Amino acid sequence: MSFKKFLFILSTEAAGGRNLPTKEHILTNVDKNIEVEVVNTLYRGHTTNLAREFAQKNPGSVVVACGGDGTLREVAEGVFGTDSYFSAIPCGTGNDFYKTVAYGVSAEEMIKNIHKLTPSKIDLIKVNDKICLNVWNFGFDADVIVKAKELQAKHPRMQDLSYTFGAIKSVFGKLSTKISYEIETIDNKLHTGSGNFLLGNVANGKYYGGGFNPAPRADVKDGILNVSLIDHTNSFQLLALLGKYKKGKHEHFKIVHTFDAVKGKLKSLEGEINGCYDGDIVRFSEAKFEVINNGLNFAEYEGKDG
């Protein structure tokens, strides 16, 4: 199957728009044998509406998200449930989902080779009534993202370092939340418990938060959600953990609990806390999650390094 029609959605919110290709650049560099439309988002929710309208009117087409992880999720939400395909070009600050599906492939390479995409399917995470593409997380790391976004707003030039400085700033704040959990794993076992946790995440992809690797074994095509819960620790132990956590070398720590899950429920015993859907903060007190196996049509770049 070869795709003939593409919609590129450009989000100026991603990295302040500084990494976005122009409409003229896209139209000049894509293969001349394909039909291409390029649009800019104009308001909150516009991204999803644009993606859904195009996908429904043009079955078998590809909607290409040009932006950060939040933009990718919004486009995926619009394509979800249609006969069209989702794809993406890395134009954000972290580009975390992109690192899982096409690590090392540049935006320029993707644009020039967009006609070479092939049809595939990937999993999604459903959290309550929301679709999540990459990682849903809560606790310390969600607080880091809140602080990172604050830093990005105040200091636009430090986009690439905002997550690191956000983490350092958060180290000296509240370091745990009391959570109860019910997690069903792929072997049909139900794991229950509660405790004071530094953070937790439900991962479809490997990376989040500007390159941290909470789920080194994650695969967007395996029908598994890689769930991690990390026990409360002090600031000094946390600093020692962060380096390993960024590199995906943390799973052997005793305070790290991992589950290969298909669904579950997490409840804050302290009222509402920060939760993060692909970089966008949504506060919650209780959340049910599950994997949607092969839930999204995905136009894949086969030249990826893996």
What does this protein look like?
This protein is of the alpha+beta class and 306 residues long. Helices cover 26% and strands 34% of the residues. The chain has 8 helices and 14 strands. It has helices at residues 23-29, 46-57, 69-79, 96-102, 107-112, 140-154, 162-171, 235-247, and strands at 5-10, 35-40, 62-67, 85-90, 118-127, 130-132, 135-139, 177-185, 190-203, 225-231, 256-268, 275-277, 280-281, 286-300. The strands form 2 sheets. Strands 5, 6, 7, 8, 9, 10, 11, 12, 13 and 14 form a 10-stranded antiparallel sheet that branches. Strands 2-1-3-4 form a 4-stranded parallel sheet, with helices on both faces. α1 (23-29) links the parallel β1 (5-10) and β2. α2 (46-57) runs parallel beside α3 (69-79) and α6 packs across α7. The longest helix has 15 residues, at 140-154. It is globular. The protein starts with a strand and ends in a 6-residue tail after the last strand.
CA-based gyration radius: 19 Å
Strand-residue fraction?
A: 25-35%
Overall structural class, as computed from helix and strand content, comes to: alpha+beta
Low-confidence stretches: none
Tally of DSSP β-strands: 14
Q: First CA to last CA: what distance?
A: 22 Å
- Average of the residue pLDDT scores: 88
Q: Sheet with the most strands?
A: 10 strands, antiparallel
Which series of helices and strands comes N to C? EHEHEHEHHEEEHHEEEHEEEE
Structure described in brief:
With 306 residues, the chain is of the alpha+beta class. It contains 8 helices and 14 strands.
Fill in the keyword field for this structure:
alpha+beta; 306 residues; 10-stranded antiparallel sheet; 34% strand; single chain
